[in-house]
Write a structure and sequence with these properties.
Length: 117
């Protein structure tokens, strides 16, 4: 499974409401994410608005495409878009910046164990 990390920026004046909205995400949105192959999905929010998301998926493009086909995702993205800066007319799920994973402890430990065996 690929580990995906992404960033967005939440408007500082909307942080409290953004947190509230994620305290109880719509059940049909949760099901859509699960069914689209998003696993172990978490969001982390800093007080300056930096939002970091992390999830695992077998196929990022397929997971994104599966969400794109759902009606609930269209509604959710429309509701969430006003919370973000810098989207330039894109939806949040189109505007997040995926980061390259440059270190993974488990991967390096496994490689080390394989060389010692």
């Amino acid at each position: 499974m690929r580990r995906v990390c992404f960033i967005l920026r939440v408007r500082p004046d909307r942080l409290a409401e953004y947190r509230e909205r994620h305290a109880a995400v719509w059940p049909d949105m949760l099901a859509a994410l699960r069914d689209a192959g998003w696993h172990d999905y978490s969001l982390f929010l800093h007080d300056d608005g930096l939002l970091v998301g992390h999830f695992r998926t077998a196929d990022l493009a397929a997971s994104l495409a599966a969400m794109e086909r759902t009606e609930v995702n269209a509604r959710w993205q429309a509701e969430m878009a006003p919370f973000f800066v810098g989207l330039d007319g894109r939806r949040p799920d189109e505007g997040f910046l995926v980061l390259d994973e440059i270190f993974n402890l488990d991967t390096q430990l496994a490689a080390l164990e394989n060389t010692e065996a």
